[in-house]
């Protein structure tokens, strides 16, 4: 399997590649954007780490690529950025029959669906955490785009995300935390931390995973911090705007802090409530520098 380079866009000191490939997980063509920092094009830069950014409801790979301003930070520290899509797409991919914005196309919830008709295509957990990294690694080994550099899409990697993508980042990080550990660090912006208990999550989990609570708990960060042991001194970074209209009824970040009490994650989740900020990319872009520094330290770049 290979990627088609749809376009190469000069951005900051590097290049943003808009890629397309056929996915075995979703059985569809998938779009993904990759930013290669300036270091990638320098002689003998060696292996460059990667940060995966998972977007929120109704988004595509374009939103964060255009609005989050990760590129200057990637150039500053020397990591690549990967912006996957939020769901499978195509004429034969089932959508929400009610055509709502919080389920179906653009709202894959980063889970592997088990319920018909979504189980055939909506395998976003396997796609993001397994297939996409492997395929990117293989493609860039032979792409000839750099000057002797490679991107370590598999091992020296971090993950972050916004809203539904913040949930996906937290869930994937905790599920992939051991045996063997995949991500060096995790952060989130306005994350949906306890989807089992709020409307967005109940709709998404119910539609994709069915009614069994045990299936929901496999993905829910509030449950995962209780059963996944922090075997080091690892921390999670979260920012949440207090003027976010979804803060109190959907996102509820305090529930993750409460769930961590008495566990190995107590005191290891750094929740920053920032006054006046909303749910938009004005908020995300304001705190990307702090998240970039956090991941750069954990990726060994500082």
Automatic annotation (TrEMBL):
It holds the Pfam family Esterase. The active site is at residues 163, 244, 279. Keywords: Hydrolase, Serine esterase. One of its GO terms (cellular component) is cytosol. The keyword Glycoprotein does not apply. GO terms for molecular function: carboxylic ester hydrolase activity; S-formylglutathione hydrolase activity. Its EC number is 3.1.2.12. One of its GO terms (biological process) is formaldehyde catabolic process. Belongs to the esterase D family. This is S-formylglutathione hydrolase. It comes from Lachancea meyersii CBS 8951.
């Amino acid at each position: 399997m290979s990627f088609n380079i749809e376009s190469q866009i000069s951005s900051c000191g590097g290049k943003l590649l808009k890629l397309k490939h056929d996915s075995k997980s979703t059985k569809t063509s998938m779009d993904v954007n990759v930013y290669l920092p300036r270091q990638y094009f320098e002689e003998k830069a060696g292996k460059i780490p990667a940060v995966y950014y998972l977007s929120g409801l109704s988004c595509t790979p374009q939103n964060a690529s255009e609005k989050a301003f990760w590129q200057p930070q990637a150039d500053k520290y020397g990591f690549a950025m990967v912006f996957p899509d939020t769901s499978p797409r195509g004429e034969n991919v089932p959508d929400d029959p009610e055509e709502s914005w919080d389920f179906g196309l653009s709202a894959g919830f980063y889970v592997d669906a088990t319920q018909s008709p979504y189980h055939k295509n909506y395998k976003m957990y396997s796609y993001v955490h397994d297939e996409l990294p492997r395929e990117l690694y293989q493609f860039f080994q032979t792409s000839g785009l750099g000057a002797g550099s490679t991107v370590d899409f598999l091992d020296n990697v971090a993950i972050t995300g916004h809203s539904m993508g913040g949930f996906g980042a937290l869930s994937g990080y905790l599920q992939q935390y051991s045996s063997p550990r995949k991500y060096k660090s995790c952060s989130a912006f306005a994350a949906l931390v306890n989807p089992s208990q709020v409307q967005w999550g109940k709709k998404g989990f119910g539609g994709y995973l069915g009614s069994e609570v045990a299936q929901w708990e496999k993905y829910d960060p509030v449950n995962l911090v209780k059963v996944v042991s922090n075997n080091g001194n690892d921390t999670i970074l979260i920012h949440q705007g207090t003027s976010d209209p979804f803060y109190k009824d959907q996102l509820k970040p305090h529930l993750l802090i409460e769930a961590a009490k008495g566990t190995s994650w107590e005191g290891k989740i750094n929740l920053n409530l920032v006054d006046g900020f909303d749910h938009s990319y004005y908020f995300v872009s304001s705190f990307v520098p702090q998240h970039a520094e956090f991941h750069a330290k954990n990726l060994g770049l500082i």
